[in-house]
Amino acid sequence: MDIKKKFGLKIKELRKERGLSQEKLAHLAEIDRTYLPSIEKGERNVSIEIVERLANALNVKIKDLFDE
């Protein structure tokens, strides 16, 4: 599986575990709410800054976003 797809699925998994909507997570991560769905689908090649924002918003370490 493509790394973008794996990353997106991990974001979605963690978001759902925390009971967050896509809109709420996008707000917490300070990214556009229309950007998150394409990340979760593995359609975006996100920057390291976005990875850090998502990790902070989900209250996990960056490495946790890449654990299988």
From TrEMBL:
Gene3D superfamilies for the chain: lambda repressor-like DNA-binding domains (1.10.260.40)
Domain of life: Bacteria
Keyword DNA-binding attached: yes
Family matches, as InterPro entries: Cro/C1-type_HTH, Lambda_DNA-bd_dom_sf, TransReg_Diox_bact_type
This protein's UniProt keywords: DNA-binding, Transcription, Transcription regulation
A molecular function (GO) term: DNA binding
Database matches in SUPFAM superfamilies: lambda repressor-like DNA-binding domains
SMART domains tied to this protein: HTH_XRE (SM00530)
Positions of the HTH cro/C1-type domain: 11-65
Keyword Transcription regulation: yes
Any one of the GO CC terms: cytosol
PANTHER family hit by this protein: HTH-TYPE TRANSCRIPTIONAL REGULATOR, HTH-TYPE TRANSCRIPTIONAL REGULATOR SUTR
Name of the featured protein: Helix-turn-helix domain-containing protein
Species of origin: Flavobacterium rakeshii
Biological classification of the source: Bacteria, Pseudomonadati, Bacteroidota, Flavobacteriia, Flavobacteriales
